[in-house]
Write a structure and sequence with these properties.
This protein has 147 residues and is α+β, with helices and mostly antiparallel strands. The chain is built from four helices and nine strands; from the N terminus they run βαβαβαβββαβββ.
Length: 147
């Protein structure tokens, strides 16, 4: 049966732009890049695994604090998320812990990142939602979590 979560993944439209955001703005480290490694993700096996026939994938693994985020850029590209909300069925997000949510908020603002609002006091945490360059919903929390 399932024993743990290995990674979370987002499909992105521009890998270099996304790497720059997650690495330079959020402080993640590139762990592995399929293009740099010379690994081609295309063909019948990849078509079957992804359910996206005729595509090729550029895959990058990013790490932070022991967690792994996978970014995938498909060619040809699928449809874009447009004006989606956290309440939409199927919407997902990754939540990052931070020791200084206000400094993160200021850095996001300085980099013209879409932030839903300034950090808000939740039940036991400071919380904010923001968007990556493709509009993917991300969350940051500061404080002691119950789980």
């Amino acid at each position: 049966m399932i024993s743990t979560i290995h990674h979370a993944c987002f499909t992105v439209s521009d890998m270099e732009r996304s790497i720059a955001f997650y690495r330079d703005v959020l402080g993640m480290t590139v762990l592995w890049d399929s293009v740099q490694a010379g690994v081609a993700y295309k063909g019948p096996v990849c078509d079957q695994i992804t359910g996206c026939p005729g595509t090729e994938q550029h895959i990058v693994y990013l790490g932070i604090g022991g967690g792994i985020l996978e970014l995938v850029e498909y060619t040809p590209r699928g449809k874009s998320l447009e004006n989606h909300k956290a309440s939409d069925i199927g919407a997902a997000h990754v939540c990052f812990k931070t020791d200084d949510i206000n400094a993160l908020y200021e850095k996001l603002q300085a980099n013209n990142v879409t932030v839903h609002c300034s950090p808000q006091k939740g039940i036991s945490l400071l919380v904010m939602y923001f968007r990556d360059p493709d509009g993917i919903i991300l969350e940051a929390v500061e404080g002691k979590t119950k789980v």
